[in-house]
């Protein structure tokens, strides 16, 4: 099952849809369920620092500069880590080399209540 998350930037009225899928991330004998963003334009795999903290993963930081969702460059410290990604049904898993990223890497995007937007559109007979 995949999901579509719709985001709106603080200084931008345009809606952005992101394809996501729920997965388990495993490391150090711990397991955390997250929603992974599927980004075919990304050149790397990133994991939120809060998730790596919950998994007890710590290492040395490295400085990087990346282009983020709002097409600006962000510089931040990353930690290269190894985790196991598992599909929620448990039938498929794979080891991944990922980099941590701070929570603010996606800028000021906020999740839009898609059900509300759909109801508003239906009220105007657009759907």
Could you characterize the architecture of this molecule?
The protein is mainly beta. The protein has a single domain, classed as Beta Barrel (Cathepsin D, subunit A, domain 1), CATH 2.40.70. It has 2 helices and 9 strands. The chain has helices spanning 49-54, 114-123; strands at 3-8, 15-27, 30-38, 46-48, 62-67, 73-78, 80-87, 93-101, 110-111. Strands 1, 2, 3, 4, 7, 8 and 9 form a 7-stranded mixed β-sheet that branches. A two-stranded antiparallel ribbon has the order 5-6. A hairpin with a 6-residue loop joins strand 1 and strand 2 (15-27). Mean pLDDT is 76; it is low at 1-9.
Number of domains: 1
* Element pattern in H and E: EEEEHEEEEEH
The main pleated sheet reads as: 7 strands, mixed
Question: What structural class do the secondary elements suggest?
Answer: mainly beta
Tally the beta strands: 9
- β-strand percent reads over 45%
Outline the secondary-structure elements.
Blueprint: E1 3-8, E2 15-27, E3 30-38, E4 46-48, H1 49-54, E5 62-67, E6 73-78, E7 80-87, E8 93-101, E9 110-111, H2 114-123
Parallel strand pairs: 4-8
Antiparallel strand pairs: 1-2, 1-9, 2-3, 2-7, 5-6, 7-8
Properties at a glance:
Cathepsin D, subunit A, domain 1, 127 residues, mainly beta, globular, single chain, seven-stranded mixed β-sheet, 2 helices, two-stranded antiparallel sheet, 13% helix
Q: Short summary of the structure?
A:
The protein has 127 residues and is mostly beta strands. It contains 2 helices and 9 strands, in the order E-E-E-E-H-E-E-E-E-E-H. It has helices at residues 49-54, 114-123, and strands at residues 3-8, 15-27, 30-38, 46-48, 62-67, 73-78, 80-87, 93-101, 110-111.
């Amino acid at each position: 099952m995949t999901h579509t998350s719709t985001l709106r930037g603080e200084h931008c009225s345009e809606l952005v849809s992101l394809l996501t899928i729920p997965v388990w991330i495993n490391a150090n004998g711990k397991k955390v369920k997250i929603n992974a963003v599927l980004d075919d334009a990304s050149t790397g795999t990133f994991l939120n620092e809060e998730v790596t903290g919950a998994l007890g993963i710590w290492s040395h930081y490295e400085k990087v500069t990346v282009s983020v969702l709002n097409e600006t460059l962000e510089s931040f410290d990353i930690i290269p880590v190894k985790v196991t990604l598992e599909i929620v049904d448990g039938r498929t898993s794979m080891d991944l080399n990922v980099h941590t990223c701070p929570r603010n890497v996606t800028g000021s995007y906020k999740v839009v209540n898609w059900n509300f937007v759909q109801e508003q559109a239906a009220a105007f007979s657009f759907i």
